[in-house]
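Deliverable D5.2: sample structural annotation.
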Amino acid sequence: MNRRQLIGDVIGLGPHWLARGNWFADHPARRLPPAADTLAEEPAGMPTAAETPPAPTAISAPAATQASTSAPQLAAFEPVAEAKRPSPTPAMPTKPLLGWAELEKAVANCTGCRLCETRTQTVFGRGNPQARWLIIGEAPGEQEDRQGKPFVGRAGQLLDNMLAAIGLDTERDVYIANVLKCRPPGNRNPSGDEIVACQDYLRQQIEHIRPTLILALGRFAAQTLLDSTDSIARLRGKLHRYQGVPLIVSFHPAYLLRNLPDKAKSWQDLVFARRTFRQLIGE
């Protein structure tokens, strides 16, 4: 298989790129304490050339050289740099923590903002609620609104393929949710009051899941969780924290479908996240 075919698999343009079977065999439910309370600094904060597979640079090239058919190896990582968070804004009043089933019911019956008038149904999440990876997107789209699950359209297929490329099964190893639980009409950007109305639901989901690592996809997810107005470009490549949970920022898959060259940068983010996760669990 040539390099172009290999990358096509990873970014969802061809058959699934299956990760090597022994990469993550011992993963999902085995919760280990972090190896250390803090992470040491790394000069660059991003994967080195040795860690980043050669494939992404050839995503949009007209021709590609031959490459191995096996999935790219992740080199032994080094400590990662941690970003400084801006001063937090005053905390919003929060509701008592509900049980998981009660929380899902509360979301389904929510009338906290105008989106309840136009939705088909709410979108709570999918995956393993006990997973150590939490993927957070922005808002449901048309297919998500119809099926009641996040990331089930073309963007979801791309996300599943990219996660599989680093050895993650979306039903076993991750939980996937959105900042908003209802679709904004026409897939417009979320408004501030809609984000505020939904933020306590997301907070409670995070408290229940207690993930080892959060991957925030897209500007609204990243800015909401980090209480920041910085762009994706400024937030990528750094280790942030949300209420003490390590967090990494990357592009939303829907954006990647419209901006093919940035798929290479997104792949770098995934390698960085995988490397950080292994450090956090002491591998």
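Annotation notes: The first strand starts at residue 126 and ends at 127. Residues 192-209 form the longest helix (18 residues).
The annotation will be released with the project's public dataset once the embargo ends.
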